[in-house]
Design goal:
Elements lengths: L13 E12 L2 E8 L2 H6 L7 E6 L3 E6 L10 E6 L3 H7 L6 E8 L5 H4 L3 E7 L3 H13 L7 E7 L11 H6 L2 E7 L9 E2 L2 H8 L6 E6 L2 H13 L7 E4 L15 E2 L2 E2 H4 L2 E3 H7 L4
Parallel strand pairs: 7-8, 7-11, 8-9, 9-10, 11-12
Antiparallel strand pairs: 1-2, 1-6, 2-5, 3-4, 3-6, 12-15, 13-14
């Protein structure tokens, strides 16, 4: 029987190896990682929306969503935007290099509660990463969900992640709406900011749950736009990106009042966000 993936020391990462690196955009790379112990890899379990800490030995660790779906377990996938010391170090790694993984951490999307509902994903830039894990889970279990619509945008066509998967998403019955902020030569999809395209599409809130992630300014206007369309707070889910250190609720680096993003999140409903707003 496979052994349970656990460490007596919660700060001790599992050893892994980078199997593949994909250059998504000029400043975002995707890492496909396999745990070195085959039994640990076979026993590894997680839910869509959970995160992990990636360790670059001698540099540090940082938190990223596991954006591969639990329905596809040949590797663990993380997408990393180059923004700081640890992410720059990650971008310098090569296929075959060792890497530490502390995962899974945090809560997850309520997949069972979403069964039978229409789903609206609204993403921007690297914010598509946490949405991807849930999107592909639903694609692999397509008969359990209703209409799936994705509104995904970025500054330019080159800033859209997972472009090589768009045809696969469409083949799974996903209504994919792509947009960029301004006109680009050869671009044949929508042009406009994501909140504007959301208002133009005006997807009905009836039996639908909206899930959004992206830059904070985008999320702010998407949440307002969803409310204008009639979505109730409990029909809206998002993920919060706050700096996490320990990942297990001990250090207090990610707390918002008495809420710890690394334990109570990163997935929150808009109902929960409204309770936390005075602390943000």
């Amino acid at each position: 029987m496979p052994k349970v993936v656990t460490n007596d020391n919660p700060y001790l990462p599992h050893m892994g190896t980078i199997r593949e690196i994909i250059q998504e955009t000029p400043n975002i790379k995707t890492f496909r990682i396999v745990l070195d112990d085959p039994e640990e890899m076979a026993a590894f379990r997680f839910e869509p929306g959970q995160v992990g800490q990636l360790s670059v030995f001698g540099v540090g660790e940082s938190t990223f969503v596991i954006n591969s779906p639990p329905t596809r377990r040949e590797y663990l996938q993380f997408s990393v935007m180059k923004t700081g010391e640890v992410t720059r170090a990650l971008h310098r790694l090569s296929e075959g290099d060792p890497i530490g993984v502390r995962a899974p951490l945090g809560n997850s999307f309520p997949v069972d509660e979403l069964k039978g509902k229409d789903i609206l994903f609204v993403g921007g830039g690297i914010g598509m990463a946490p949405l991807r894990t849930l999107l592909l889970t639903m694609a692999d279990r397509r008969e359990e969900f209703g209409d799936i619509t994705v509104i995904y945008g970025a500054r330019s066509p080159q800033d859209l992640c997972y472009r090589y998967e768009f045809d696969e998403w469409k083949a799974a019955g996903v209504n994919l709406i792509l947009t960029v902020d301004r006109e680009f030569p050869g671009w044949e999809e929508r042009v406009g900011f994501v909140p504007t395209v959301l208002a133009e599409e005006a997807p009905s809130p009836f039996n639908r749950v909206a899930i959004t992630c992206g830059p904070p300014i985008m999320i702010k206007f998407v949440l307002a736009g969803l409310k204008e369309l009639g979505y109730e707070d409990d029909q809206i889910l998002t993920t919060l990106e706050r700096r996490m250190k320990c990942g297990i609720g001990l250090c207090g680096r990610c707390n918002i009042g008495d809420t710890y993003v690394c334990v109570d999140g990163p997935v929150f409903s808009n109902t929960q966000l409204r309770r936390m707003v005075s602390e943000l």
